[in-house]
Amino acid sequence: MPLFQVVSSTAVHTTFNAFFCFVSNEDEDTFKWALLQIKSLLQKEKTPLPAVIITDFDKALKNAANSVLPDTAQQLCVWHILKNAVLRIKKKWDGLLQGEPDAADDGDNDEGTCWDHKG
User: Fold this and answer.
1) Is 0.85 topped by the overall pTM?
2) Domain extent listing, the chain
3) CB 23: neighbour CB atoms within 10 A?
4) Mind listing the pLDDT tens digit for each residue in 19-50?
5) Using CB atoms within 10 A of its CB, is residue 64 exposed (0-12), middle (13-18) or buried (19+)?
């Protein structure tokens, strides 16, 4: 059973675990439910909603956040970006070393292409 974890940061730039939720799956409806629970609790306690959320570009979570927290900016996690970059570079490098002529150009250089977050 996947664990949905929300981490927040303090004014002195330390992080803390804010919410945990076991979810039955990682689809949009489940993420909407989890985010609605968090939003409800924050509003009940008169705590401001988050200004920014950082994700691994999971499409279901991104859509759920757009629906539940439309005024919250979404950013990509740097760790996931770097991990994906390393994997893509390794694939290209391995292809070049094996003499694959098209390894340098995988046709994935189009603007707006999403990074594979599953890496």
Assistant:
1) no
2) 3-76, 77-119
3) 14
4) 999 999 999 999 999 999 999 999 999 999 99
5) buried
